[in-house]
């Protein structure tokens, strides 16, 4: 145990940090981890080869400061100019940078709840209050409630984590039209959704769409995220982000996937959606009523979520359980994976239903 020198005073954290805690997303040791919505089909083949062929002499040098080549590949993929792209160490980093760039100290970020759990944390880290409002009765974003919050930033996650629901494009448009501050649209699960929102950045200079290569692209461990927005808006986020945030290894793999592996990723997405549909049919036959999802996971309301999650873990399967989600109650979130893995999940759910 380290003894504190009595001559020195322990520094105090910034106001508000005392009640924050570190992220706790670990579900425990398991052989099948379906808790974090990543791609269980593996990583893109060209990206894998790029890592195998990587020149490790480059490890001794700094990577590109602002990932110009990676921006070009992302821009071609999403159909915009590279001046409209900012990258980061995962989409969390881009979100953090955007909140820091456009959130005034003592200001407010508003969102509907439940949503991505890191958002209120990122707001508070950057000196903002997080104000959450309920979704409407149909599970869509509540436009009037979001706009009435007098916030610096409105955050919309679509498809939403943990519910899997998509916000109506018309409602996002309304918010972007009427809101004076930054509108962040988090599309981490965009590849699984049939709804394209990229057009929003052409019509609105206050919209930033964040995306990631941690989900459908199967590269969560490499931490590559990005955002799409008006060039002037993106430039401010880039100032906040700082240089050298995407490593050379990560950038090399991401470029390879973007340039050569889009058909492979589309095939994986199709397989994921097929599994999701089949899994929904199976669990509905057991009496469960999952929420409609446009993502690679399902949220399943159940009164005994913690108990079921523990039984899953005993069987070597990690899933995420939630308690008292606003408007939902207790629920399980389960990532879709190749069918043999899902069959093991069903075995536990069938035993639980008996």
Describe it for me?
The protein is of the alpha/beta class. The protein folds into 2 domains: 27-42 and 263-353, Aspartate Aminotransferase, domain 1, CATH 3.90.1150; 45-260, Type I PLP-dependent aspartate aminotransferase-like (Major domain) (Aspartate Aminotransferase, domain 2). Helix content is 38%, strand content 17%. It contains 12 helices and 12 strands. The chain has helices at residues 45-52, 68-78, 90-102, 118-125, 143-147, 169-178, 199-203, 231-241, 248-260, 262-285, 305-314, 339-353, and strands spanning 32-33, 85-88, 108-113, 129-134, 153-157, 182-186, 207-212, 225-229, 297-301, 317-318, 320-325, 329-335. The protein has a 7-stranded mixed β-sheet with strand order 2-8-7-6-5-3-4, with helices on both faces. The model has no long low-confidence stretch (mean pLDDT 94).
């Amino acid at each position: 145990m380290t003894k504190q020198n009595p001559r020195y005073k322990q520094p105090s954290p910034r106001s508000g940090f005392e009640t924050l805690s570190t992220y706790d997303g670990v579900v425990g040791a398991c052989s099948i981890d379906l808790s974090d919505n990543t791609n269980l089909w593996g990583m893109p083949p060209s990206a894998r080869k790029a890592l195998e062929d990587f020149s490790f002499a480059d490890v001794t040098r700094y990577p590109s400061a602002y990932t110009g080549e990676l921006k070009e590949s992302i821009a071609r993929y999403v159909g915009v100019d590279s001046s409209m792209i900012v990258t980061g160490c995962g989409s969390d980093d881009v979100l953090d940078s955007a909140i820091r760039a456009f959130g005034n100290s003592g200001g407010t970020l508003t969102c509907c709840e439940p949503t991505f759990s890191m958002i209120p944390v990122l707001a508070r880290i950057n000196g903002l209050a997080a104000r959450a409002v309920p979704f409407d009765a149909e599970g869509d974003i509540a436009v009037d409630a979001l706009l009435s919050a007098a916030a610096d930033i409105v955050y919309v996650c679509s498809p939403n984590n943990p519910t899997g629901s998509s916000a109506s494009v018309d409602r996002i448009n309304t918010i972007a039209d009427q809101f004076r501050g930054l509108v962040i649209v988090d599309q981490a699960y965009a590849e699984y959704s049939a709804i394209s929102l990229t057009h929003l950045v052409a019509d609105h200079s206050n919209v930033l769409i964040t995306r990631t290569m941690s989900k459908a692209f199967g590269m969560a461990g490499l931490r590559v995220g990005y955002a799409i927005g008006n060039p002037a808006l993106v430039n401010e986020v880039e100032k906040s982000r700082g240089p050298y945030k995407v490593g050379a290894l990560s950038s090399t793999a991401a470029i390879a996937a973007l340039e050569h592996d889009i058909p492979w990723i589309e095939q994986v997405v199709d397989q994921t959606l097929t599994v999701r549909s089949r899994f929904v049919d199976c669990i509905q036959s057991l009496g469960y009523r999952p929420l409609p999802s446009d993502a690679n996971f399902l949220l399943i309301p159940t009164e005994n979520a913690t108990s079921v999650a523990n039984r899953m873990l005993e069987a070597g399967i990690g899933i995420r359980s939630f308690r008292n989600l606003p408007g939902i109650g207790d629920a399980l979130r389960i990532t879709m994976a190749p069918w043999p893995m899902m069959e093991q999940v069903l075995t536990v759910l069938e035993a639980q239903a008996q």
